[in-house]
Design a protein that fits this description.
CATH superfamily of the largest domain: Dihydrodipicolinate Reductase, domain 2
Largest sheet: 11 strands, mixed
Distance between the termini: 47 Å
Radius of gyration: 24 Å
Shape: elongated
CATH topology of the largest domain: Dihydrodipicolinate Reductase, domain 2
Number of domains: 3
Number of strands: 17
Structural class: alpha/beta
Strand content: 25-35%
Number of helices: 14
CATH class of the largest domain: Alpha Beta
């Protein structure tokens, strides 16, 4: 295997994990590591502080470095650093899903022109191998659908809400105390992280460029303990699902939002911080991969795996791995959420008056919505009742129109929540 000199940009939890794993490979030499704080103590035995620099461009411009491992995250200044490195003929191994979702097209184009590769197995599902399998062993398949749990923080929170009957706020605090959630959890709980990942995975699976700006995104912050309980009574678990599918008309439907998933479904059984990806394709059928989607060691597994594959290839040729080159010249025709068809869970707070359920049925009927299940959850002290409705498959725009009309009725006090049902 060809000996490689690498530079590491970012030396937090993941970067440190990558460095520790690389100590097991004599053919890989870490020449320089870019950090923000040169004075921070490193929990690494016999660590050579001379490896550190606070100038990442020093690594990007170092003629002796063959490959840059980027685990710093973010877009600025990371994009400019990697662009400089690629123009200098350096290969890139990255775990940066936000950068790839927002700027990947530009970086891949430059990499193609400079005859270098960008490998990113760690960017979508941590330690779960998915990028290279889709590009290699699954390339004989026409993938038509992806349904995935791609964020461990939100999956942990929803699991604890279900298992311990916790509120969202309490479950989030617990996740923060255990290190699953950041002090500012917005990127996870509002679905940004999962949206970046599904845009990357959909692009390579459907062979069309999927725009992050056109992905419908909704987080878990509105999920209540009562929603969790009602869903369970109806035979469902609530999960944050990242979904992409090719419709019959060739358009692409990509979105991230909470969904009711039937308890018998494999994704409903994926708990705590675990990630899982289900692909549907022809001729393979349904395929599911499950494992750790984040963390130092799982992410290091994918980062170092990419690096070793690259080193092995470069032993015989200076040409990049052909399967790693971006060929997605066609832009996906993505539909808006209003054009989608789903079954729905609707939680309604209504006055405990005769005819309230009839009003719900009438308004749903006027908007082309058939009700599959309707359930009243007792009467509260203020003489209102929670009514839970499960619809048959309906168009999103019709459902939104029905909700607006329901709120105009004196009998309907509030629409507490609207969630889609996986089918």
């Amino acid at each position: 295997m060809k000996k490689l000199k690498v530079g590491i940009i970012g030396f937090g939890t993941v970067g440190t994990g990558v460095f520790k794993v690389l100590q097991n490979y004599k053919e890989i030499t870490v020449k320089k590591i870019a950090v923000k704080n040169l004075n921070k103590k490193r929990n690494i035995e016999n660590f050579d502080e001379k490896l550190l620099t606070n100038n990442a461009f020093e690594i990007a411009n170092d003629p002796e470095i063959d490959v840059i491992i980027e685990v710093a995250g973010g877009v600025n200044p990371t994009f400019d650093i990697l662009k400089t490195a690629i123009n200098n003929g350096k290969h890139i191994v990255t775990a940066n899903k936000e950068l790839l979702a927002k700027k990947g097209s530009e970086l891949f184009q430059i990499a193609k022109e400079k005859n270098v590769v960008i490998l990113y197995e760690a960017a979508v599902a941590g330690g779960i191998p998915i990028i290279m399998p889709v590009k290699t062993i699954l390339c004989a398949n026409k993938i038509s659908k992806i349904a995935a749990i791609l964020n461990g923080t939100t999956n942990y929170i929803l699991t604890k809400m279900h298992e311990q009957n916790l509120s969202y706020e309490t479950a989030l605090k617990q996740a923060q105390e255990l290190g699953y959630a950041e002090t500012d959890p917005t990127g996870d709980v509002e679905g940004f992280d999962a949206a970046y990942k599904i845009s990357i995975l959909s692009t390579i699976s459907f062979n069309k460029k999927v725009s992050i700006d056109k992905i419908y995104r909704e987080g878990i912050t509105k999920i209540t303990a009562q929603d969790i309980k009602s869903a369970a009574e109806l035979g469902y678990r609530i999960k944050l699902i990242a979904m992409g599918q090719v419709l019959e008309n060739g358009k692409i439907d990509v979105r991230v939002h909470p969904m009711l998933v039937a308890k018998k479904h494999l994704l409903a059984k994926v708990n705590n911080a675990t990630n899982s990806i289900m692909l549907t394709g022809y001729p393979v059928g349904d395929l599911i991969l499950t494992g750790p989607g984040a963390g130092s060691e799982p992410t290091a597994s994918s980062v170092v795996g990419d690096l070793l594959v690259l080193a092995s290839e470069l032993e015989y040729s200076n040409a990049p791995l052909p399967q790693s080159i971006c060929h997605h010249d066609e832009i996906a025709d993505q539909i808006e959420i209003g054009e989608t068809f789903n079954e729905y869970y609707i939680s309604i707070n209504a006055s405990n008056n005769p005819g309230a359920i009839g009003i719900i049925g009438t308004i749903c009927g006027k908007n082309n919505i058939n009700i599959s299940t309707i359930m009243q959850k007792g009467v509260k002290d203020d003489n209102t009742a929670e009514i839970v409705v499960i619809t048959e498959k309906s168009k999103e725009s019709d459902v939104q129109n029905a909700l607006k009309e329901l709120l105009q009725s004196d009998s309907i006090k509030n629409i507490d929540n609207l969630l889609r049902v996986m089918n």
